[in-house]
Specification:
The complex is a heterodimer. Chain A is 69% helix and 1% strand. By secondary structure, chain A is mainly α. Helices cover 21% and strands 36% of the residues of chain B. The chains are: A mainly alpha, B alpha/beta. Strand 1 of chain A pairs antiparallel with strand 4 of chain B.
């Protein structure tokens, strides 16, 4: 039987309008392609690094060890009696996903230029597939967190675990929103990726990865939390490690800002999308 | 067969802006230049006022000189780039083959690339699974299925890519010149497979410089020039008009910078000179010819066989002169230039227009550079052949004599 998955029985090709919405139905029709691109990214990633899958374990683990030695033991960053290793690893878990996803998504349209110039498909599939790919690393790193907790005999808060997927969703929306915006910009301005590396490094210092958000003076906190990643990491620690009750305002604010970011990303993407094949 | 309309193109146009600037901008420059005057941009219409109706089951050949807008037209119909004016309506599933091995990733194995490339070309996973064995068998590379394609020879790469392409099963198939590479036998196999499918009512749009495949495959043909439709109709008629156009600038030294090259480009033909040995501006049946090619090596090349080929007006291969037959293969160091002059003695071609192609490669499958129909020349009839009658049709002559045995003339009516 011939599968009619990709069939659009009638297509009108016209000069583009100023703005067009996202065609969710079409993206659903192309779900096989989305799946296969994620699969390709994962395969290629683990084939190219010498240590392969082990890299997903080593990278956060080594970073954690170094941070623990310098910030935990030597500088003695305050963590409210939580083992610094567990404290910093919880932050790194989300931060690593965010920075990997943002960097690769920003580069995605340029690195897949060969297929964008030769075949039609909803272009949004390329950046989405790229943001989804590091989820594999995230899941591996996530398991390590629990091993780490067992090692330090640390008892996590149970409903805090339930919150983790929600925080992951916010992280996904933030990195895909920013990533889609930068990817579209990168098609025309090829120096975006160099600026981005610097930008991400700076962003890490204003996000509570190595320190606790409690050191920020109260009156500056609202500025601090404009960064949804600051909210995500704080919420993850509060709920999972500190056994605090959930800060709904912070959750709603982080979600809201990440939602705005994804809207901006999609808007700019749709506006520039039609000329990708001409510019690339 | 009921001929229903499957593609309708009305007033289609595509405008590009050509600026003085490089294609990529930097954010830094743009921010710096925000207050400066914008550089003057020029409008360029790659396509203008194209009207076409294509019916189900048709195989439409699209020909024209470089820059005529053939590829732009295919890209608009494939929805890769939008038109500036007009519209096109398409009823059916479209697959475009604008490149060999679309989406191939060098690190992945042949097996993995089949699934990847098929998905990118529009096949569902289920469909790919069902056709997997056919694709592998057709490609003749089953023993290398689990080898990364970066270790494939170029021949194997092309075979695998072609097999996937030959098995996609859309209503409308759009092909741009991809059939020009690969070895001849395998090409024939693919063309056969595609021709077979068109009997089931598939519509094919085919861009090619190979007049032979246009003539043998297409049911209708369009000639584009400078973004406009010049002629549309029976392939024989349209190809003839096109040939008259190109044979206008025949003979003499040809600069190959802007020609379409195939092969891995580790070395390139930079010029081609087709001339008579005695310096006469006129080629005439039986003249001695010289074909001179200049080759620039971009990489070290070795064991290259250099060929020049003369084709007739129907792109049948008539004569080839190559170095390998004479026991010579070319070795050339990077950044070195070689000039080879072939002397063809007494070329006994009849009057007409002939095309000259050049090819260089090592071994059967490795193509270094090829320009299919690089130039053409017009052969005139010898004076002595036109003294009593205008020449008869045909391609070749040979030197011949005749003798009338007068003493044998007798009246056979007489007993």
């Amino acid at each position: 039987m011939k599968q009619q998955n990709y069939t659009t029985t009638f297509i009108e090709i016209k000069p583009p309008k100023a703005f067009v919405g996202i065609d969710l139905k079409e993206i659903w029709q192309y779900r096989d392609l989305l799946y296969i691109l994620v699969w390709r990214n994962v395969k290629v990633r683990y084939k190219q690094t010498v240590v392969g899958v082990a890299w997903a374990i080593f990278q956060p683990l080594i970073t954690m060890v170094i941070f623990t030695v310098f910030f935990g033991r030597l500088i003695k960053v305050p963590t409210d009696n939580i083992p610094y290793a567990v404290f910093v690893y919880t932050g790194l878990l989300y931060w690593n996903y965010f920075s990997t996803a943002l960097t690769s998504t920003s580069d995605s349209l340029v690195s897949d230029e060969s297929i964008i110039k030769k075949v039609y498909f909803p272009r949004i599939i390329v950046p989405i597939a790229t943001t989804v790919t590091p989820l594999v690393d995230f899941l591996v790193a996530f398991l390590i967190l629990f091993i780490l907790m067992v090692f330090y005999r640390f008892m996590p808060n149970f409903w805090g675990i339930l919150l983790l997927p929600v925080l992951m969703l916010i992280t996904f929306m933030t990195s895909s929103g920013l990533g889609i915006f930068l990817a579209s910009l990168n098609v025309k301005y090829r120096d975006v990726r160099y600026i981005l590396g610097f930008f991400i490094q700076l962003l890490m210092y204003i996000t509570p990865v190595i320190y606790s958000a409690s050191i920020i003076p109260d009156r500056f906190r609202w500025i601090f939390y404009l960064n949804p990643m600051a909210g995500v990491i704080t919420l993850a620690r509060d709920s999972l490690l500190h056994h605090l009750s959930l800060d709904w305002t912070l959750l709603a604010a982080s979600f809201g800002i990440s939602f705005i970011l994804i809207l901006i990303g999609l808007f700019y993407f749709r506006r520039t999308e039609r000329f990708f094949a001409d510019v690339l | 067969m009921k001929l229903e309309l499957i593609i309708k193109i009305e007033n289609l146009g595509k405008k590009y802006m050509i600026g003085a600037k490089e294609p990529y901008y930097s954010l830094r420059d743009s921010l710096v230049n925000i207050f400066k005057k914008k550089p003057n941009k020029k409008e360029f219409w790659a396509l203008k006022n194209i009207n076409l109706e294509i019916k189900k089951g048709e195989i439409l050949g699209i020909i024209g000189p470089n820059g005529a807008g053939k590829s732009t037209l295919l890209k608009i119909i494939s929805r890769i780039t939008p038109p500036t004016t007009g519209q096109a309506s398409i009823s059916g599933r479209v697959a475009s083959l604008l490149e060999i091995g679309t989406g191939f990733h060098p690190e992945l194995t042949g097996r993995e690339n089949i699934f990847l490339s098929a998905a990118i070309l529009g096949m569902s996973r289920q469909e790919t699974k069902e056709k997997f064995d056919q694709i592998v068998e057709f490609s003749e590379i089953s023993q290398f299925l689990d080898t990364p394609v970066k270790r494939y020879s170029s021949g194997m790469y092309v075979r695998l890519a072609f097999s996937i392409a030959a098995h996609i099963d859309p209503d409308i198939l759009i092909i741009d010149e991809v059939l020009a590479v690969g070895d001849a036998n395998f090409q024939k196999k693919c063309l056969g497979k595609m021709g077979e499918a068109s009997h089931d009512g598939r519509t094919v749009l085919l861009v090619s410089h190979n007049m032979h495949s246009i003539l043998s495959l297409s049911t209708r043909c369009v000639l584009l020039s400078k973004g406009k439709v010049v002629k549309i109709g029976r392939p024989e008629d349209v190809v003839r008009v096109y040939q008259k156009d190109i044979s206008g600038d025949s003979s003499g030294k040809t600069d190959l910078v802007n020609a379409e090259h195939y092969g891995d480009q580790s070395a390139r033909f930079t010029s081609l000179d087709v001339r008579t040995k005695d310096g006469s501006p006129l080629f005439a049946t039986g003249c001695d010819m010289e074909i001179e090619v200049v080759i620039n090596a971009n990489e070290d090349i070795s064991n290259a066989d250099v060929q020049t080929i003369i084709y007739d007006e129907n792109y049948n291969r008539l004569i080839d002169a190559n170095t390998l037959t004479k026991g010579y293969v070319l070795d050339l160091k990077k950044n070195h230039q070689a000039k080879i002059v072939f002397s063809l003695d007494k070329v006994l071609l009849k009057e007409g227009t002939y095309f000259v192609g050049i090819w260089m490669g090592s071994f059967a499958n490795h193509e270094i550079d090829a320009v299919l129909y690089a130039t053409s020349f017009k052969m005139e009839a010898r004076r002595e052949d036109t003294l009593y009658a205008s020449p008869y049709p045909g391609v070749y002559v040979c030197e011949y004599k005749y003798q009338v045995q007068k003493n044998q003339i007798k009246n056979f009516n007489k007993k």
